[in-house]
Every structure is written in C-alpha cells, then in structure tokens.
## 1
Amino acid sequence: MGLRRIAIASAVGAMFLVGACGQATVESVPSTELHMSRVKDYTIADLRAESTMVVRGTASTSREEEVDKVPVTFTRLRLDQHVAGLGAGAEWVEIVQLGGSAVSSPDTSPLLADGDRYLLFLKPYTARSRSAVPAFVITGDQGVFRESSGGYEFTGAPSDELPARFTADSLVAQARP
Amino acid sequence: MRRIRKLAAIVAGAVLTTLFVVPAAPATAAPWGCQFSTPYLHYKTAITNTAAYLNPAQWAARYWQETNTPITLSPVTTGANIVIADGYLPSADGYDGMIRTPAGQMENCTYNHNWTTGMYVWWNRTYTDYYTGEKKLSVMVHELGHALGLGHESFTSCNYVSIMEPKTAKRYDDCRKYKPTVADVAFINQIY
Ligand SMILES: [Zn+2]
C-alpha cells in the first residue's frame, strides 16, 4: 500500500515536472520577431546632444503592451540620481523599449532587468502611456549602461561606436555638458 | 533530413558566393534560410501619407520583383503576405525601419520554416519624413529583404556593402545602396 502510494505520488510528481518543463519550453519560444533598420550608431556626444535628461536609476516591474501592432515593454524605474539635463519632476518614470518576453528582437536593447541599476540617456515618449508616471525612451536605443563591478557596461542596441565598458567617473563626466 | 541537406546546401552556397561573388571581403552574415512557402508573393500598402510613401512602397517591391530571382511581389488589397506601412513609431527611437514577423526564429529556422503571411514592415516617419525618395527606398528594400528571408550583413568597403547592411548611415549615406546587390540576389536564389 505504502509502495503504491509512493508510486502514485512519483507518477503525479513526474507529470507535474513534465508539465512544468513543457510550459517552460513553450514560454521560451518567441511568438514574434522584430528586425530593425538603424539610422546610425550614436556616440556619447550624440547621446548627450539628443537627450533631454540623463539619470541613474533602478529598474523595477514591467508590463507589456501592443501599441499599433508593435510589441512594447514599459519598465518602471526609480530615479536614484539626476545626472544632467531637465529633471523628471517625479520619483518614478517608465522606460519604453521595443520587444517583450515572447519577442525575439536581436537588433534592439535588451529589456531592463528588475533590480539592476542603470545610467540612462532619455527622451520623452511621445505617445500616450497608460501609466500616471512620465514615460521616456532610451535615446537612439543605445543610451543605456548597466552598473557592474564598480563601472558601467554598455547594454544598448548593438553598436560599433560605443565601448563595452566605462569607469563610473568617466561615463558620468561624459554625460554632463 | 531533407531540411538538413537543404540547409547544408544553403551554407555551402553562401560560402561559394562569398568566395566567388564577393571575393576578399569576409561575410559577417548569411541568409536566415527562412522563407515564404512560395516565391509568388503579394503585398498590400497601408500608407497614411500616400503623396510621400506610396510611390517608394511600390518601387521597393518592384526592385525585388525585377531581380533575376523567382520572386514576384504583386500588389493586392486582401490576402497580402506583407503589409507595407508608414507611421510615427514613438517606441523606435534610433530606427528608421522595422519589420515584425510572426512566430518563427529567423536566425536558425528551427521551426515554422515556411512563412505564409502576417508580416508588417514600417518606415519610421520620425526619420524618414526627412529622407529623399532614394533614401526611403534604401530602408524599405532592406526591410523587404528581411521579409524574403535575408539577415543582416556588414562590410567596411562600399564595394561589398549589401542592401542588408543594418545602418542607413552606412548603407545609404556612405554607400548609396537602395537596390538589391548581386550578392543579395545570389542569396535569394539559394533560398527560393
Ligand atoms: Zn535590418
């Protein structure tokens, strides 16, 4: 009896495992792809010139939407430091990026990761957002740098122009006019 | 098995093309190998600014249609494989063109090997409203290249720059490419 119960429990457990694995596989398969034509690669000077605001912030939760057939992710960002340009007039903003969890989008910037800290060059998002906080896009989709090992790692759309790593002081100094 | 053999043929073909059509320049990409189930394709325009974009949309399709490939791209009003649109894409800062394809991994085609329909390609008017007709074409002929199954290609020398160069600053501003090149045509002929 005991053995039979163990066998049933194992079978049920295995079914759950298979189910879980199956689901994980399904979720990891992209349902949509985006491929882009890029205007140009941005230099730090381009990013500085075209951005209205440069900030340091921590990424939080995100939501996904389709805006005029385009899959878009809105990530909440808690502002930790104003670096240059205009102020956001808010403690939180939303960062709008192309793509989503089920979208393969190799040409665009990877989605901001919950809990990671970034330095961002931003422009206002010109379409309406559902959220009450101000929404911004990453300038040229290349003005995004993640804090790592005491410096910054470039995490924008693929670039032949921007270095892969910056020291914290040098990036902040270059972000200011 | 048939697919593996076909993929091998494509890879071999790409290598040969690289060796003989564009010698001395290292290829940085190859066709995805994903394709429509037929080369006889239909497109529809969903253009808002017809004065500025309808003509370039028709010419972009025509440039592919006129290549020495099996591809035909005919205009229709319903049942299109590809929809060509213009719009202000507020989430696409830094991009002048975009294509959205349905399910399928373009880069390796591990499933959904043959597309049938459901592709949207856009000009991002935030940028392209300031482009000449030829430069608008450079963007759309590039995007339609993706629709047909081509991936990005990057070369330093303009002699080798393809319509599939991802940056308009290089593809058009530096190299004035706005039609499919000989290498692009060779790649299309390998996958159709
Ligand atoms: Zn492209």
## 2
Amino acid sequence: MSKDNQILEEFTSKEYEHGWNIDIEADQAPKGLNEDIVRFISAKKEEPEWLLEWRLKAYRAWTKMKEPKWANVGFPEINYQDIIYYSAPKQKAKPKSLNEVDPELLETFKKLGISLEEQKRLTGVAVDAVLDSVSVATTFKDKLAELGIIFCSFSEAVREHPELVKKHLGSVVPISDNYFAALNSAVFSDGSFCYIPKGVRCPMELSTYFRINAANTGQFERTLIVAEEGSYVSYLEGCTAPQRDENQLHAAVVEIYAKKDAEVKYSTVQNWYPGDKDGKGGIYNFVTKRGICAGDNSKISWTQVETGSSITWKYPSCILKGDNSIGEFYSVAVTNNMQQADTGTKMIHIGKNTKSRIVSKGVSAGHSQNSYRGQVKVMKRAEGARNFSQCDSLLMGDKCGAHTFPYIDIENKSAQIEHEATTSKIGEDQIFYCTQRGIDEEKAVALIVNGYCKEVLNQLPMEFAVEAQKLLALTLEGSVG
Amino acid sequence: MLSIKNLHASIEGKEILKGINLEVKPGEVHAIMGPNGSGKSTLASVLAGREEYEVTAGEVTYMGQDLLDLAPEERAREGVFLAFQYPVEIPGVSTTNFLKTALNEVREHKGLEPLDAVSFLTMMKEKMKLVEIDQTLLSRSLNEGFSGGEKKRNEVFQMAMLEPKLSILDETDSGLDIDALRIVANGVNKLKTNDNATIVVTHYQRLLDYIVPDYVHVLYKGKIVKSGSKELALELEEKGYDWIKEEADTTTT
Ligand SMILES: Nc1ncnc2c1ncn2[C@@H]1O[C@H](COP(=O)(O)OP(=O)(O)OP(=O)(O)O)[C@@H](O)[C@H]1O
Ligand SMILES: [Mg+2]
C-alpha cells in the first residue's frame, strides 16, 4: 500500500468513528456505495463488529480495484454508484391465485413440467398452511438437526454460529480476490450457510429451495459450505424455474471448504432472465465460486447448467491442497440470441497425486458468444498430478461464436495433462434422421443437444436432470429454421 | 397407396431423377435394383422428404395426399419409414430414448396418449425378439460405434417399433452376415400385412429369396428402365446390368 493510500485510509476510517449519517430506520439505502452504505447494511442486519470490519476492509480493497476486462464479453459501463445496495425485503401483495400471475411465466412452468403446487410456491401465491413450504422446510430442518447438520440462511448463521462463520468466511475467496468478490464481500445481502459435521453423510440433497428465507437473497448472494472430516454433502443451488429480477447486476460468492476425506458435490442450474431477443434487460451474472480441498483425499465436484443471464462470468474452481484430493468441473453453457457467456474453471494442484477432471460443453445459437476459459495449474510440490480436460463446442447457425481459452501452467514434470477439444455443428443428416422418425426439428435439436450434454447432465441429481433437459430445449427454442 | 408420376429431382443443380413412375399398392413388395449412382437412394430420400433435394417436376400421391407437400416429420407420422443406407450417429442419445420420443410423436399425431414406461418396455421386448436385437445395443448411443450389421438391424428394429405403412429399405441387406440377413429379412416379413407396403432397394438377389418381391424394377440414370417379376432379379444376378444399360442407352439416344 502506498503511503498516500495509507494516510487516506486512516483519515477516512477515522472520520467514520464519529458515526455516519444514514437513517437506520429507512427501508432502503440511498443509491451508491460508500462506507456509510456498508455500515448501514451491517447495522440493518445487526451484525457483530468483526463482520462490519470485514466488510469495510473488502469495500476499501474494492475501491482500489478495477473491473476486469479480460473476459470475452462486452457490455455498457456499469455505474456502481447508481445501484441501491440495500432494500428491506418487501412484503409484496401476494397473488391470490395463479390467475393473477404473468401468463408467460405460467407457460414456461408448464413446459418445464413444474407441478401446480410448485408453481404457486414459486410465484408466491398464498397456499394452505399444510402445504406451505415453510412446514416442509421445518420437518426437513428437524431431520438435519438430528445429524448435527446446519443449513440456514447466512444471516442466521452469523447470529447462531458466529465462530464457524468467522473461521471460514473468506478463507477460500479472500476479500480482495477479484473485483466482484470484493464488492460482494462489502455488500452481500444474504445467502446460505451449510455445515456438515465430522463423519456425517448428509442423507438428502440439500437444496436452497427448502431453505426458509430463500426468496430475496438478492443480487449479492453469499454461500459458505464447510464439510468436516469424512463428511459428504450434495448441494443444489437454484431451481430451474425462470427467475426474473429487477436487479441487473448479480455478483455472488460461493466458498466450499472440504477437510480430510470429505466430499462436496455442488450442482447449479442457472436460469436468470437472459434478456429479450435483442439482449435488452438481461441479468449480468458475475460469480466467484471456489472450493478448497484442504484435507487429504477430499473431493469437490462442480456441476453447472448455465442457460440464463445475458452475461455470465463464472469460473467455479478447486484448490487441490490435500494429497490425493480430487477436483471436478462439469459444465453445460447454452447461449442463444444475444447472450454472452465466459465460463470455465481453475484447477490448482498443490498436493501430491491430486487429480482433476474438466468436462465443458458449450452450445451457442443465435448471435450469442460462448467462451470456455480454463486454467490447470500444477505447483512444484504436486508430484503425480493429473488432469483431463474435455472442451466441446456445438454451434447452431453461423452468427454465433464459440471460443476456448485453455491455460496450462506446469511446474512439476511428473504431471500428466490431457486436453481434448472439439467444435461441431448439428448435422443436417442428424436432423433429417430424427424428422424421418416423426420428431420435428425443434425437438430433434433438443434431443441432439441433450445427447451432446449427456456426460454433464448425468452428474446432476435425477429430478434436477430431467428439468435441466427441458430447460435446454426451452433455451434453444426458436434457434432452428 | 403410393403413386409416383414423372418425378424429377435434382441436387445442387444436377438432375438425378429424370422421370420416375411407380405405383405401389397395399400389401405389395417392390424391389428396386440398379447400378451404383443410378439414383436409388435419391428416390428414397425424396420420398422421405430430405430438403437438399429439389423436386423439379412430377407428383407423388401417398394415401390420397400430396406427399411432396408434407414436411419430413409429417410423412413419418403418416407412416412413411426409411431404413437408411447409412444410418446416422447421434452421440449421447440411446436408441431407446430416441424411439420413445419418435413413437410418442407418431402416437400424438394419431391422437393417442403417450406410452408409459412400462408399456413402452413391453413393446420393445416384443419387437426385440422379432429382429433378435440385444438390449445392450439399444441402451448405447444411437448408431455410435455400431458395426455395419448392427446399424442395419437397428434400422429394422425401429421399423418394427414404429409400424409404418410404407417402408423403404435402402440396402438394408448390405453389411449383414448370412445369419443376420435371414433373421432381419424374416423380421421384415413378419411385419408384413395386407395394409402395408415395402420398397426394398438392394444389389443382391439373395435378399429377395427371403423377402419375395411382387415386382422388380431397374433404376438406371434416374429412370426406371425395366420392370418385371422376381425372375428379373435372377436374370440380373446372372447377366449383370450391361444388357439393360445397352437397351436403355439405345432407346434414349
Ligand atoms: N449431395 C450431392 N451432390 C452431388 N451429387 C450427389 C449428391 N448426392 C448424390 N449425388 C449423386 O447422385 C447420384 C445418385 O446417387 P444415389 O445415392 O441416389 O445412388 P444409388 O443408386 O443409391 O447408388 P448406390 O447403389 O451406390 O447406393 C450419384 O451420382 C451421386 O454422386
Ligand atoms: Mg444408395
């Protein structure tokens, strides 16, 4: 830090000792971001001092950083001072029945095969007390509590388990890791916390979906998963229902900490609003996801199906620190119309005999741009490290683009690295073969694309996989002919 | 059932079919033979609706409808089936999954409910016996890494599942070993009823020992230059195509 900066920082933080001037009773913070806003958010959430300090540190780091420009995406300048960083969860007037819900949304639900009850839950239609998701969530929570598993909102974790949060927060993604992570650390609204005790195998898929408070986690979501020695958990993020949000910028952070012999499987289906055909109104999704295999023989596996957002900037990564630890990344990224995706992974081999596997399937249609960006780094001490990468791109039409940016960086000669990449198009002959059997072109494309993504979809839990398949078809609707 | 009149078709500006006439009635089996490149597969593709081929003249009526007016999937749902000379690979999609999708499309077109998993599997089992195809093959990616013979057997299996009215088998016999040829041919025969019709494209009379044709046609340079009974196939086997080519070339020039 330069002397000037240091002085500046001391000066600014001093001034704040005297308090700050936003009305804590306000439901919403004024536009823009400064230390007052950070304090306001923290106060609103009644956070302990250490967390406020942590946020402020992140904020200060952020002010010194620049928005990264290296990704293969383009978008108009974001004015960070034009964003509202806190607004109280609003009690919106709930629709009384599905008749009051946007018919377009209902049509999409129908195509995804989402049950009526589920549709009501997702659209916030008031439901019978018995069917209310809260009661489902409560029984679910009791079951987990018996095993000592903690699964709650981030705010609740800060209140109930501050020592666990304090110990692990920022341990995988440090506050100044990157521009968006720093921003998130300063202003994160809420998110999920998950803790699996030693030797416990979580008996069910943990889905954010069951968590009370899941709604309104907002645009700066924070997730922390801690897997103690010998534990196992499969965690599902998101839901295949279309998610619309007025906030254009989303910058989430997910951290996974896996100790010795622990295994964490993290699956995401991302279906944020991609914008209209001309790319207007879509979500900018700038996410930092990283896991550390801290202990020997631990394993972290990322599976993602990315179909939404107008811009996706996302590289779920693994730091393979423990010996014999394993990192996996399975990804399907589908872009259509004006969507842009720059996504991939980083596998950092530090421990001995660490293994990583990358399977990336990009599908581009319309005028979209789809990039795979991945790094495999083998450090000096990582004797016997192995990586296998498979990066496939599928192009539909000739107005879209597919790009691959693999970076390989090896400091230990014993490393075995394999990289395969293919680019293909859906063949006329494949489509004709399908249509000749009675399958129309649109369905044929969906079938072929699903087949192409099979290896990744197979990694998803069953119910999720079925919905993900339908989602792929939906995203590519209108991309043929 | 099928009536082809003066059908002309070209690809990339090159005329391949130059006036085909053919009448196929329900319950009939027609064999189409002819030298390489004479246009047999082209005819099959045009009937199935492959878009690369441009029909420049003529008409095709199928079950009282203008066949050329229908999209390929509509033709298929109406009962036109093509067993491909070169079946296409679709990675990651199993034959089972593929057929389930296809069958339910056809059923929907007929106003039927989609088959549930159990009925579908029961039907599969039954049809598998017909062509003696192995379950493991059906759960693999469609045609990917299949041997030549396996691909052909799979085509006839699909035909058995979809129960078409008009089947066009394009060199389904090539690639099959002697036993497989008998099995597959018997399968085709068992699928025969008085209401459906089959067009078999083949180079070998041997197939016609099993699938006995009512008519044999010789396609040469985009035209049917000779038609006859099954004896014509025997004659061709013995004498080759030269005499027919000569006949045809002298009459056209
Ligand atoms: N895409 C194409 N472009 C140019 N010519 C083509 C194309 N497809 C087919 N042809 C030509 O059309 C002619 C007829 O081909 P077709 O496949 O119908 O023959 P066939 O009678 O089925 O032959 P075989 O017995 O070898 O299967 C051939 O000369 C072939 O080269
Ligand atoms: Mg041919």
